[in-house]
Amino acid sequence: MPERPWPVLALTTGEPAGVGPELASLLVHTAYPARLVLLGDRDLIRQRAGHAAEAWPDYRPGTEAPVSILHIPLTVPACPGQLDTRNAGYVLALLDRATEGCLAGEFDAMVTAPIHKGVINDAFPERHFYGHTEYLADKCGVDLVVMMLAGGTLRVALATTHLPLKEVPAAITSESLTRILRILHTDLRDKFGFATPRILVAGLNPHAGEGGHMGREEIDVIAPVLEHLRAEGMHLVGPLPADTLFTPRQLEQGDAVLAMYHDQGLPVLKYATFGQGINITLGLPIIRTSVDHGTALDLAGTGRADPGSLHAAITLAAELAARKKS
User: Is 324 labelled a binding residue?
Assistant: First the structure.
């Protein structure tokens, strides 16, 4: 039987003033079971990556090189640590090219280095740019996706993402929670290989509402949704008080956690895994992983950026892509 070809991963190098372009320099020290295509300005990548990158060829479809560069030119030269709104369109062009390549089957997955939401919104205020997750959903024609961060054996998905806290309760409806749990269940099964995913579901309020004395969202929305989906065969536990959910005894009962809002679930995961965590977008027709940190403008150009999260994101993308191809 012929050897299965390695998956091809598109790696967007992100905000040019941040650490993304130089993290590429550390790729030469690791052999991945995939071919990496770095999307970005050729001169910027080679400048930040140093002499090792001089051997990386330009990307052509079908190239056999372990690492290659798909050149997308900067609008203006970039300086480490100095944001420039004139390069905001360049950042979006990287995402557009990688997404289009994944949808067309040219790439098997995409991995994204960090971007700076503020500079994109300053450049394009009419777009209301919320982040990678929402932008990629729109590019893929999907009206609902789920953000999940992972590190080690811990996986935390979110029922809501980048919302002000006061808007969270109204955003958690029976319909939205049902759809989110179905996406999470489906991708844990189909992309991650869990035959019957076990999902731990947090309550919204302290003590999961304490029988209605601290809020009724658990009684009126969350519990009925879980009961309905259990009848369909899903393995769901909850709603659980968030302050005791993230304990070893509880976590060993599940394959993933669904938190109700951003700062309910992610501080725990980042405390446990920061520097090694991964952001995965569920519900897309493509595979997308990302680092769990920002642009680190203060570290850009210093050579002190930690590549651990990017390494983990590439490793997981290669694993998921290989499973999909098998």
Answer: no
315 three-state secondary structure: helix
- Confirm or deny that 132 is annotated as ligand binding: yes
Q: Are residues 126 and 12 in the same domain?
A: yes
What's the CATH code of the domain at 205? Answer: 3.40.718.10
Check whether residue 194 and residue 275 sit in a common domain: yes
239: preceding bond cis by omega (within 30 degrees) = yes
Q: What is the pLDDT of residue 52?
A: 65
Kindly report which listed range (17-21, 49-53, 65-69, 278-282) carries the lowest average pLDDT score: 49-53
Please check if 315 is assigned to a binding site.
no
Strands 146-151, 154-158: pairing is antiparallel
Q: Which residue has the higher pLDDT, 27 or 58?
A: 58
Structure tokens at 67: 């690492």
298 and 240 part of one domain: no
Helix, strand, or coil (residue 220)? helix
Other C-beta atoms lying within 10 Å of the C-beta of residue 141? 9
270 is in an annotated binding site: yes
Q: How many helices (H) and strands (E) does the chain have?
A: 13, 11
Whether residues 36 and 4 fall in one domain: yes
Q: What is the pLDDT of residue 1?
A: 31
Q: Does the annotation place 288 within a ligand binding site? A: yes
Q: Coil, strand or helix: which one is 233?
A: coil
Question: Annotated binding residue at 262?
Answer: yes
Convert the pLDDT of each residue in 25-57 to its tens digit. 777 678 899 999 999 999 999 888 876 677 889
Range of the domain at 236: 144-283
